[in-house]
Model the fold of this input.
Amino acid sequence: MQQLYNIKKLINIPQYKVTEIILNTEKEIHIRLEPYKRKPFICSYCGQVHKTGYHGKEETVVRDLPVFGKKTYLYVTKRRYLCPKDNCIHIEQVSWLKKWSRVTYRYAKEVNRLTAITTNQEAGWFLGLDDETVYRIDKEMLEEEYEKKLQPPPPAIHISIDEVSYRKYHHYLTNVVDVDKKLVIWNEKGRKAEVLDRYYVGIGEKACEQIKSVALDGARTYISSTNRYAVNATIVYDKFHLFQKLNWAVDMTRKLELNKARKGGNKELINLINCKQRFILLKNKSKLTENQAKYLKKLCEINRPIYEAMLLKESFLKIYDFYRPEDAKSYLEKWIRETLSSEVEMFKIIAESFRDKMQYIINWFKVKISSAISEGINNKIKRLKRMAYGYKDIEYFRLKIHQHCGLLNPRLYPQ
Done:
């Protein structure tokens, strides 16, 4: 009896007593538990305590945290009562057991914590579980935490909005990041205006009015949604995405000139602008090595379109040397006029886009907010996706993003 009492103290299960050690080997221990007679019956259907209507009992085998490194299995006796609410027989609710699961709540929590630092496959190997069981337990835990911490969505003062691809062929998730906390606070499948609308509707009108700044990638859908709801927010076209567009224009110019060189048989130009050399064109001129600078100088001497493209890119970057918004706006207007009169078609497309969104570009000089944190989080999300070799369940992928990059990260809540 003393041994059973010691085991009871060790596993620390409330309102249950250890009645038998069924099996005890080097790797496993199997323990039988029964409820104390004074333990009230709580109905799993209505959640109420029933004192009459006893209808028997049954035994359930559940997995618990290991004891001294041994896999621990608990044989739990559950009582059954007739519920007056629906006049049906229901099994009792046990607070420390996961509902409809074969694991204790604390074991499920341990699985969830482990999947936050490694893959489901590795976690399953460590715990002796198959991948499907780990997935099911982890998803259930994340759904519970999501309802507690992210419903309704938490408001923020400064936010960054960006999309990330979760599958090939233009399948995207929209992520909203709290810039101050550097955490994902909301995400949803798609990147249309109505998708982002759900976040603003979710936080409510008052919280929308308190948003001071929004950094985004210039997508019209995000801009229209933000203008509709976050009426007091300053929308900032992020520097990072502006640089991306400039690099795109340079690279497209390179590809056009490469095609022309191949048709004309110009081997010297082909060698200078092939795919292996394109990173030199995209690199900041001030960060080029001596050899790269010589290469770029030679290229510009023999190909005028690429030379003009490089000049336009470098001249645009000078806008960030200004401090006052009015000076930056004046310089940007001048750059747009010069670009539209140039012969570089790709930069003309960029200039038209910048003219339409000029105010959002200039807003950076008023509120120096960036979506760089979103790009950093996107890299973490891509790494998460690679580690799992992709996700078939998009809802689970959304939850995993919150677990690794948001408010569901167990590291935010020390045990």
User: Anything to note?
Assistant: The chain has a mean pLDDT of 87. The chain has three domains: 2-97, 158-237+370-412, 239-365.
